[in-house]
Amino acid sequence: MAKIKVLIVDDSALIRNLISRLLEEQGEFQVIGTARNGKEALERIPQLKPDVVTMDVEMPEMDGLAALRRLMRQNPVPVVMLSAHTFAGAKATIDALAYGAVDFVAKPSKSSELGKMVSDLAVKLKIAAKVAMKRMTGRPVVSRVTRPATASRSGKTDLLVIGSSTGGPAALQTLVPALPKDFPSAVVLVQHFPVGFSQALAESLGRRCRLTVSHAVHGEAVRPGHVLVAPAGMEFTFQGRPGSVTVNLSHGKAPVSLGSFRPSVDVVMTSAARTYGDRVMGVLLTGMGRDGAQGMLEIKKVRGRTIAQDESTCVVFGMPKEAIKLGAADKVSPLPEIPADILNML
User: Fold this and answer.
1) What is the DSSP string of 175-221?
2) What is the pLDDT of residues 103-150, one digit of tens each?
3) Contact (Cβ atoms closer than 8 angstroms) between residue 299 and residue 281
4) Catalytic residues, which ones?
5) How far apart are CA 64 and CA 56, in angstroms?
6) Does residue 38 carry a pLDDT above 60?
7) CA 147 to chain centroid
8) By 3-state DSSP, what share of the chain in percent is helix, strand and coil, each rounded to 5?
9) How far apart are CA 116 and CA 103, in angstroms?
10) GO biological process: any one (predicted)?
11) Domains and CATH numbers, the chain
12) For residues 190 and 297, what is the distance between their CA atoms, to the nearest angstrom?
C-alpha cells in the first residue's frame, strides 16, 4: 500500500524535524519535504505534489492563514493546521477551517506531549488525505431562509440540537447564519473540539449570525432564538422542563475513553429527548465516527424530528451515516437544504 505523502510547514526547525521523524516511524507516511513559511509552501506544493499538508498558523513572511487562502484558490490540497493553544490561535484556527482546512491539532504546551500530538495528527492526516477537495473549496452557499407562516405539523419545537465533528465548523458557518432572526426555538451546537477552541467558534458564529450566539455557561436558561455552543471538555445536559430549562455543565465522573468525546452529541441529544420529548429536533452533520447516531435515535423514539447531512456534502460521512443505518434520520439532506428543512419541520 502506498504511503501518504506529507509536506510539513512550520517555522521551527525542531518541530519540522520531530514531526517528520515521528510520522515516518509510524510506517504509513512519507515526509517528502518541509517548508519554513507559507511562501515556501506555495512554491513547493506544485513541485512535490503532497497528498496532505501540515500547516502552522503563526509563521514569518507569510502565515498559515494567508498561505491557506491562496492555496485553496490556486492548487487545492488537503491541509491540517497546527494551532497554538491560545485564544488568538483558536480564533485563527476557526478562520482556517472556514477557509478550507480539513482539520487541526493543537500544539502541546509541554515537550512531553508532542508524541500524543503527532499520534492525533497522524489520525487526522489519514482522514484528510482521502477528502475530495471539491467538498472543501466548492462549499455551497446557503441562502438565508424565512420562517413559514404556519408550522408543517401540530405542536412546537422548543429546542434544536446540532452535532458535528470533522468538517463541522465550516458547515456550521454556512448553516447557522441562514437561520432567520425570528427563529422560534433554542439552539445548542455540539462540535468536537479540544479544550480552548469552542469559545472562538461561538464568537465567530456570533459575528455572522442574526441570532444571538454565546458560549454556554452552567445554570443559564435555554431560551428561544438563542444559540448556545457547548464548551469543549465539559459534559453538557439539561435540567428542568420545557419553559424553564437550564444548562447543566460538569467535568464528568470519569476520564473520556478512547474514541469518545466530551461533550458528546449522544449525551446532549439523549438528555434533550428526556427533557423536551417530542419538542426537540436533532441535526447531525459531517464527522468521523458514530457519536450522535444513538442520540438521534433517542430523539426519534420520543417523536422528535431528525435530519442527517447527506454524503455528497459531508467532508467525512461518518456520524450521519451511522444515524441513517440505525433508522434515526427522518430526512437526509445536502447541506444547502438543511436550513429550509429545519424550518419546515418545526
Assistant:
1) HGGGS-TT--SEEEEEE---TTSHHHHHHHHHHH-SSEEEE--TT-B
2) 999 988 787 888 889 999 999 999 999 998 877 655 555 556 655 534
3) yes
4) 165, 192, 291
5) 6
6) yes
7) 26
8) 40, 20, 40
9) 16
10) chemotaxis
11) 4-137 (3.40.50.2300), 159-345 (3.40.50.180)
12) 17
